[in-house]
Write the structure tokens for this entry.
Amino acid sequence: MNKGLVIVLSAPSGCGKGTILKEILDQSEDIRLSVSATTRSPRPGEEDGKDYFFLDRKEFEEMIQNGEMLEHAEYAGNLYGTPKGPVDAWSEDGIDVILEIEVQGGSQVKEKLPDCVSIFILPPSFAELNRRLHKRGTETEEVIRRRLALAKAEMEHAEDYDYIVVNNDLKDAVEDVKRIIAAEKLRYSRCSDTVERVLIDAETV
Ligand code: 5GP
């Protein structure tokens, strides 16, 4: 059986990554989302085991020491990491899995799993990102400034990714991500089992 794809999706905040991800998962029944572990506190409405595995620092560090994290990174004062077990198991079973992670984690995954497909989401422009962050109206100017500085730092890592998707229009961005996944599944390296099967079959005709 061909292995499932490991898809890394990264984007600075305000680029619509959450909305794109939700659309992809709603539209594609065979793609699973990796549930990350974090030391940050749950936000209202977030469920343990569904949105994140909420751990304390000691539990998180134990997982790292036991080799149970595929990657991990510190972001805005909290630890985030991808539990290795489910990603390995799904991929072995031919199931595609998306990792919604920040750039430090993204580069660790690319190093450990060079065959993964990495996608970076960009806003149409920095001015537009600035506008979107202000439009939410929920954060102070200081918080927005910090987010913009972080976004710029993250965008500097875009060159490490395989694909860039510009989120100008949500529908187009979702289509772009779906097209990338569809094309990647057709790479020879991922279809070699199918080719082999047809060739074996050819011997019998
Ligand atoms: P939030 O706290 O807003 O849910 O997430 C903050 C950042 O952490 C986002 O950029 C998100 O992509 C990233 N993140 C979530 N899970 C993981 C993970 O497992 N590993 C890494 N490296 N980053 C993650």
Observations:
- Helices lie at 17-27, 57-65, 84-92, 103-112, 126-136, 141-155, 170-185, 188-204.
